[in-house]
Each structure stands twice: as structure tokens, then as C-alpha cells.
Specification:
By secondary structure, this protein is mainly α. 74% of the residues lie in helices and 0% in strands.
Length: 81
Amino acid sequence: MPEVCALRHLSINTETSYIHWLVRAGSLLKDPKLKLLTTEMKIEALLTRLAITGVSASTQNQAFNALLIVDFRVSPATASG
């Protein structure tokens, strides 16, 4: 993650926040109830859970961007469409 953030010229605070959201998303993705869902549906479940619990839109966007940056890094073919 530090390399990706450095290449994108992101701040240390953004990097820290992205790591936080990736850890939090990782714990959600281990939920056995979500085992059969696609990656997109799991991301949607995470963002929906954040919205239901009253997390602000800007925080939801940051969580989404953290997941997006990993998706681009892991599977650029999928990200390009």
C-alpha cells in the first residue's frame, strides 16, 4: 500500500486511512454470511453497512476509494472494464 500511495502522491494520512479501511473491510469479508457473494456485492454490503450506521458520505467515499485502489492494483484488467 505505501508504494501505491507514493506513486499516486497521496499523503501519509490518506495512506493510514486507506489501511484502516482495508483492515475493516477484510474483517467484514471474512463473515461467513457473505461467502457466496461476488466481490462487487461484498463492497456494496460494506458501504451499505456504513450508511446504515450513520457514517458520513465523505467517510464512505474514502472507504470506497481504499477498496478501489486495491482493486486497480490487483486486477487492472477488471478495473479497465
